[in-house]
Each structure stands twice: as structure tokens, then as C-alpha cells.
């Protein structure tokens, strides 16, 4: 097996030699075990956010869609695809014993009705459920309301915007390039787009949403979020999903949210998507149904080759991806 080891703690933006690619021998399978081969691997912002808690010398963390190539476990039969939080490794031996503290650690993929198993890392997996539950269960968007999404061009963000449109809302996306903006407004049904790198977010938002923002789905934190929260309408709802603008900061900056929160009587709630672990497959079913009905679209940005995991990861942090960033380790 090829395995990426977390060699040196990230100091600011990750550097290539912070990880080390090593070879590991695979032992013969014991009863109850099965061997998987990674087919698609995920690169996600949480890998950067969580890194300070990860021990050096251990395999770098992450989820993957793997093919079960050999099995002595009837629950994980050879030939099936599974999702596994196995980390950045090409081959894995697992005993398939459920982890009571993390029931989403591994599972055989449900039937995706002919769609690519790679979607189990995106719209039909963790980011898809983050968009679905994080928007609907925390913001409760109503028809006619204005919904703003930061990090709108990414895996979670573009999906949140499309769901908000299905709920009859006016949808404004914020992301880092005009090309992403054209894609969001032309293809993904967004009403408006703001480029946070070239436009004045405060001024542009005032023009597009003069009555204020009812729901804010926050993927980035920092200055962008302070600006938006200060333009919320009375009793607005904020779903705090992530803070990618701060993940590479050595010293997180203070933000200015409290005055707006109090004066406008806002509700702000953070979440980790595994909160809805017991409804996980309901979320996947709903997203799959929307895809089949042509109501929701998706896009993947694919990097070829397991050895290019690090580049895929840092490209995602730099904003190269449209929709979900993944790596293809094996052709199927
Ligand atoms: P994305 O696919 O959105 O990829 C990350 C994107 O972030 C990049 O493409 C880039 O796009 C943008 N970005 C990078 N740096 C900055 C910056 N300094 N300021 C603003 N935008 C930046 O990732 P995901 O959709 O997977 O995740 C989005 C957010 O959701 C993250 O914060 C993540 O941690 C969080 N998350 C939280 C979960 C939870 O359970 N709470 C679960 C899953 C994700 P651009 O071109 O616009 O700069």
C-alpha cells in the first residue's frame, strides 16, 4: 500500500514535505477482514482545519471510495464499493467492526442508480448532507427570502444555493473568481454573484439585497462574514458551516459580529454534519432524487493519480476547484 504520513505539523499554508509518501506491506486477511483499493479520494477543507489535532507520524486523514477487492467479511463483499475514513492510503485492510463513536466511519455505498460512485464523496456524501441539513435544519429558508452563501463555488456552497432556489429564495453567491460566478449564475441557477477578491462585498450586497439578508450560510468566516452579518434583516438566521478563510492563519483575527447579532436579534448556530448521522441515508436519498429529477446539478474537479493528493489538496485550498475536489486513484 502507498500511504501519506503526516510528517511535520502544518505551519501556515501546507508544504509538500509536511507529508511523506511511504510503502507499507499488506498482511494476509484474517477472518472478518476485507481488503480495499482506493478508487476516489476526497480532499476537504476540514483536513487543514483538523490538522493541529492530528499526531505526526500517523496516516493523513480523509475519506475515500474504495473497491472491496478481497473479503472474509459477508457485510463487505468483494466487488462492492464502500466509503471509508481510511486516510490517504491506496489499500486498506479493515475488520468492518462498527465504531460506536463514529457510525459513518465506513459503509457499503447505497445504490446510486448508475451514477458515479465518486459522488459518495460529494453530493451523495458528506458535503451533500452538509448542504442539505445545514441549510434546511438551521436556516429554515422561506419562499421569497434572500439567502447568501459564502464559499459558493465549492462542494457545499453550490449545492446550498441550488436547494435554496428549490425553496423559492433569492440566492446570492460569493466566491473568488468571475468564472465561478458565471458558472453559478448561468448553470447552477443562482440569482447573483459577488467576487470577494475584486468587488466591494458590502456595497454590492447593499445594491443586490437592499432589504437585507434573511439567511446566511457561512463557509468562510472572517471579514466576508462580518460584512454579511452586519447586513442581515431582523430575525435572520446564520448557519455556521466553516471558516476556511482562517484555517491557514497562524493567529486567528477577531471578528465584529456581536453588535449586529444583538441589534437584529439574529440566530447563529454552528454544526458538524455528523449531528444528522441517524438521517444520513435520508439526505443521500433526497439529493439523489433531486439529481434524477433534474432539479439539482453537480460538478466535480478531478485530479488524476494517488501521488498527486497533495497538489489536489492545496489546489482546493487555493480555490482551483469548481464543486467537489476529488482524486482518481484508479480507473473504473
Ligand atoms: P470547497 O469545495 O468550498 O473548497 C474550498 C473553497 O474555499 C475554495 O475552492 C476557495 O474558493 C474557498 N476559499 C479558500 N480560501 C478562502 C478564503 N481565504 N476566503 C474565502 N474563500 C476561500 O470546500 P467544501 O465545500 O468542502 O467546504 C466548504 C466549507 O464548509 C469549509 O469551511 C469546510 O470546512 C466546511 N464544512 C463543514 C462541515 C461541517 O460539518 N460543519 C462539513 C463539510 C464542510 P474561492 O475561489 O471562492 O476562493
UniProtKB/TrEMBL annotation:
UniProt record, GO biological process: prostaglandin metabolic process
Localization of this protein: Cytoplasm
Enzyme class: oxidoreductase
Predominant place of localization: cytoplasm
Alphabetic keyword roster: Acetylation, Cytoplasm, Fatty acid metabolism, Hydroxylation, Lipid metabolism, NADP, Oxidoreductase, Phosphoprotein, Prostaglandin metabolism
Record EC number: 1.3.1.48, 1.3.1.74
Catalytic activity: dodecanal + NADP(+) = (2E)-dodecenal + NADPH + H(+); nonan-2-one + NADP(+) = (3E)-nonen-2-one + NADPH + H(+); decanal + NADP(+) = (2E)-decenal + NADPH + H(+); hexanal + NADP(+) = (E)-hex-2-enal + NADPH + H(+)
Enoyl reductase (ER) domain boundaries: 15-327
GO cellular component terms given for this protein: cytoplasm
Parts of the chain that traverse the membrane: none
One Pfam match: ADH_N_2
GO function terms (MF aspect): 15-oxoprostaglandin 13-reductase [NAD(P)+] activity; 2-alkenal reductase [NAD(P)H] activity
InterPro entries documented for this protein: ADH-like_C (IPR013149), ADH_N_2 (IPR041694), ER (IPR020843), GroES-like_sf (IPR011032), MDR_fam (IPR045010), NAD(P)-bd_dom_sf (IPR036291), PTGR1 (IPR014190)
PANTHER family to which the protein is assigned, alphabetical: PROSTAGLANDIN REDUCTASE, PROSTAGLANDIN REDUCTASE 1
Sequence similarity: Belongs to the NADP-dependent oxidoreductase L4BD family.
Subunit structure: Monomer or homodimer.
Identification of the protein by name: Prostaglandin reductase 1
Amino acid at each position: 500500500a502507498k500511504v501519506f504520513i503526516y510528517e511535520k505539523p502544518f505551519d501556515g499554508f501546507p508544504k509538500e514535505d509536511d507529508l511523506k509518501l511511504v510503502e507499507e506491506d499488506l498482511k494476509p486477511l484474517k477472518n472478518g477482514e476485507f481488503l480495499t483499493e482506493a478508487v476516489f479520494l476526497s480532499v476537504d477543507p476540514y483536513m487543514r482545519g483538523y490538522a493541529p489535532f492530528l499526531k505526526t507520524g500517523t496516516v493523513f486523514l480523509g475519506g475515500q471510495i474504495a473497491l472491496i477487492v478481497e473479503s472474509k467479511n459477508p457485510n463487505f463483499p468483494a466487488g462492492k464499493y464502500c466509503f471509508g475514513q481510511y486516510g490517504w492510503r491506496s489499500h486498506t485492510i479493515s475488520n468492518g467492526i462498527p465504531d460506536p463513536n463514529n457510525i459513518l466511519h465506513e459503509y457499503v455505498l447505497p445504490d446510486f442508480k448508475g451514477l458515479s460512485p465518486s459522488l459518495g464523496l460529494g453530493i451523495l456524501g458528506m458535503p451533500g448532507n452538509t448542504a442539505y441539513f445545514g441549510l434546511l435544519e438551521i436556516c429554515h429558508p422561506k419562499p421569497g427570502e434572500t439567502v447568501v452563501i459564502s464559499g459558493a463555488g465549492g462542494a457545499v456552497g453550490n449545492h446550498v444555493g441550488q436547494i435554496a432556489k428549490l425553496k423559492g429564495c433569492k440566492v446570492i453567491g460569493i466566491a473568488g473568481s468571475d468564472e465561478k460566478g458565471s458558472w453559478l449564475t448561468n448553470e447552477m441557477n443562482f440569482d447573483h454573484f459577488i467576487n470577494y477578491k475584486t468587488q466591494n462585498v458590502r456595497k454590492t450586497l447593499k445594491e443586490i439585497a437592499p432589504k437585507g439578508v434573511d439567511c446566511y450560510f457561512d463557509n468562510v468566516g472572517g471579514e466576508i462574514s462580518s460584512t454579511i452579518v452586519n447586513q442581515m434583516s431582523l430575525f435572520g438566521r446564520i448557519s455556521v458551516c466553516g471558516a476556511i478563510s482562517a484555517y491557514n492563519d497562524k493567529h486567528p483575527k477577531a471578528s465584529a459580529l456581536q453588535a449586529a447579532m444583538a441589534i437584529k436579534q439574529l440566530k447563529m448556530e454552528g454544526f458538524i454534519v455528523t449531528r444528522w448521522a441517524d438521517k444520513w441515508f435520508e439526505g443521500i436519498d433526497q439529493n439523489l432524487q433531486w439529481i434524477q429529477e433534474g432539479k439539482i446539478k453537480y460538478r466535480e474537479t478531478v485530479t488524476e493519480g494517488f501521488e498527486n493528493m497533495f497538489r489536489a489538496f492545496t489546489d482546493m485550498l487555493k480555490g482551483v476547484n469548481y464543486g467537489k475536489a476529488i482524486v482518481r486513484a484508479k480507473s473504473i
